Amino acid sequence: MILEAKHINKSFHDPVTIPVLNDISFSINKGEFVSITGKSGCGKSTLLYILSTMDTDFTGDLLIDGESMVNKKEAALARVRNEKIGFVFQFHYLLNEFSVLRNVMLPGLKLNKYSESEIAHRANEKLKMLGIDQLGSKKANQLSGGEKQRVAIARALINDPHIIMGDEPTGNLDKKNSEIVFTIFQQLASEFNQTLLIVTHDPDFSAKTNRIIEMEDGRILKQ
Amino acid sequence: MNYTLIFNIAKALLLARWRQTLIAAIGVTFSITMFITLLSFMTGLNDLLDGLVVNRTPHVRLFNDIKANNHQPINASEAYTNSYNFIGSAKAGNSRQEIYNSRAIMKTITQDSRVLGLAPKINAQVFFNDGTIDITGVVNGIDVEAESKLFFFTDYVTTGNAQDLKNVSNSIILGKGLAQKLLANIGDVVLITTSKGELFSLKVVGYFQSGILDFDKVQSFASMATTQKLLGKPGDYITNIQVKLKDIKQAPAVAKEYATLFQIDTEDIQTANSQFETGSFVRTLISYSVGITLLVVAGFGIYNILNMMIYEKMDSIAILKATGFSGRDVKLIFLVIAITIGFFGGMAGLLFGFLLSALIDQIPFNTAALPTITTYPINYNPVFYFIGSSFSLITTYLAGFFPSQKASKVDPVIIIRGK
Q1: Cβ distance B352 to B34 under 8 Å?
Q2: Quick check: B378 and B357 in contact, CB under 8 A?
Q3: Which of A113, A85, A109, A111 is nearest to A98 (CA)?
Q4: Is the terminal CB of chain B with fewer CB neighbours within 10 Å at N or C?
């Protein structure tokens, strides 16, 4: 079991208390390709940010790799994100100051597990796997939208995370690029046994995943 | 902690916005340049003005003051021991200005380890006869070698040779103002009437210019022997002993000690010239406050630019945090940016400050009052450079502290969800 949510509740308090998540409990096993779907405002993104450890304002318990994330310090959570979670967002969030290769390398350099040349080699392999290794020396702002999102996926993979989390990763892409990104995710799940948790409101996307968690008004409808 | 990575990211952010960086650094450079130049120039002037007096003033002066005796006979009378005696018109009983037993005193002082050296001196009031007019003046009988070594006498002899006082018998060096009044050229003979009414003729061998006009209008210098001859006194007649100490700060204590030891009047330099110390203190204070104000202004410039940079880089900060950089890492990145600006700006400032003060040092500055000065005075004290560089680092650190604190608190969820 990679990730386990136990009775997660969350409310927004400003200006009045509104419950957003209500007793969410589920777990994700290794190698699963899971999608969370639901209408806009049902709390699916909020749930993802809690699961990603970036949002700590909730009650209940969250276990990643069997370890509770509650009561951990900010620096320790950052370490967990660095080591165990890879992110792909709707927007690519590449740093324009760096080359594509360097962007992919950054989380690896932060983890500091391998030497710099080793990390560069690994980053290059990830780019090759996604078919964009020829773009490595370009600056991030010289790329097309689809290319940028693929670089973001390579960046999510650099530290061999336990789980990749995506928040509408195809939301900004056209049909063709969405297809490419989805194929990459599917390939990661089937060939590399990579665990994936993707939030999407696109029914075509979620229909093709192994498991669908459907949400409505802060509850899980079915999973 | 991977500091190389932090430095690399800071460097990339700095270079990506190199124009802003440059402007922030120029702000620091400018303020440090001005700080260094201002302090070097101000202290140079201070030293010059202090030197005018301090160079030529003994740290401790021993003399016999003309004053009424403290031990008046009525105080010794048994009949009036319990009363307070008011004595009107008490006269100074001691009319001799000579220092008694001067040889022994000088020997004792020379052996004192705190003393750098001493120079004996004789003051003689005279009249310079210029046709029918008598001009009052003072002849200072000096030991040329001791006076030159301790009080830079030769520096102030603008024309002629100070050594001639010793080598030419019956010679005199006149103050520049006095020489002009007497229309006396080098080699001319001036007539002098002593206070006892005797007439002497002395040969002018040089001019003396101290920079203080009133001083130069009355003062003149002759050798000890010549002055003793003028006054008709024997070879051990001395009216002043001028002592220069190794540490000027000890002067008041030493003066007090000698007064009791030798039963003589003493005066220390701090008492004699207290206004100079106050003057230079205030001038230094002004220079420091202007310099520090400049630095604070530069600090606000850096603060602004960093704040703007953080708003621009919100996305980058968010993704760095999402991919595992902690708040502390982000804070360090922005602090490194601030301190880098401070460091390079400060270094350039030190260099330009040095160059600018070296340039000022070359500007001619000729004034009749200061014969030894040809260019504007500059004090190249390394302490200013040390203060300048540490201050540039401290201000930029403080200017970077609050923005980087803010950057470390950026909530990535808000940024990422906002897109």
Answers
A1: no
A2: yes
A3: A109
A4: N
**Nearest C-alpha in A relative to B319:** A93
pTM value surpassing 0.90: no
Amino acid identity at A160: D
* Cβ atoms of residues A11 and A189 within 8 Å: no
Q: Going by DSSP bridges, is the β-strand pair A33-38/A195-199 parallel, antiparallel, or unpaired?
A: parallel
B20 close contact with A: CB closer than 8 A: no
Task: Identify the weakest region by mean pLDDT among B114-123, B283-292, B365-374.
Answer: B365-374
Q: Token pair for residue A158?
A: 């650099």
pLDDT more than 70, % of chain A: 100
Nearest to A79 among B13, B324, B416 (CB): B324
pLDDT digits (tens, 9 = 90+) for B294-351: 778 877 877 887 788 788 888 888 888 888 888 888 899 989 988 898 899 989 999 9
Task: State whether residue B414 sits within 8 Å of chain A by CB.
Answer: no
A114 has a chain B CB within 8 A of its CB = no
Q: Enter the tokens of residue A200.
A: 């999407």
Task: Please tell me which of the candidates B2, B318, B326 has its beta carbon nearest to residue A74.
Answer: B326
- What own/partner pairs with CB < 8 Å and gap ≥ 24 does B190-197 have? B190/B128, B190/B129, B191/B128, B191/B129, B192/B126, B192/B127, B192/B128, B192/B129, B192/B139, B192/B230, B193/B126, B193/B127, B193/B129, B193/B134, B194/B124, B194/B126, B194/B230, B194/B231, B194/B232, B195/B124, B195/B125, B195/B126, B196/B231, B196/B232
Q: Taking CA atoms, what residue in B is nearest to A92?
A: B319
pLDDT digit string (tens) for B58-99? 889 888 887 777 777 888 888 888 888 888 888 776 667 788
H or E segment to which residue B204 belongs: strand B199-208
Chain A contact for B418 (CB, 8 A cutoff):
no
Q: Scanning the structure block, which residue is given the tokens 């008709």?
A: B232
C-alpha span between B267 and A9 (Å, rounded): 87
- Name the phi and psi angles at A202, rounded to 5: -85, 110
Owner of token pair 């030769």: B154
Question: Which residues of chain B does A43 touch, with a Cβ-Cβ cutoff of 8 Å?
Answer: none
Q: Which helix (DSSP H) or strand (DSSP E) does residue A157 occupy? A: helix A145-157
State the amino acid at position B163 in one-letter form: Q
Per-residue model confidence as pLDDT tens digits over A99-158 = 888 888 888 888 888 888 899 999 988 888 888 888 888 888 888 888 888 898 889 888
Q: Kindly provide the ipTM of the predicted complex, given to two decimals.
A: 0.87
Phi, psi of B371 (to 5 degrees): -65, -30
Is residue A79 within 8 angstroms of chain B, CB to CB?
A: yes
Closest chain B residue by Cα to residue A89: B416
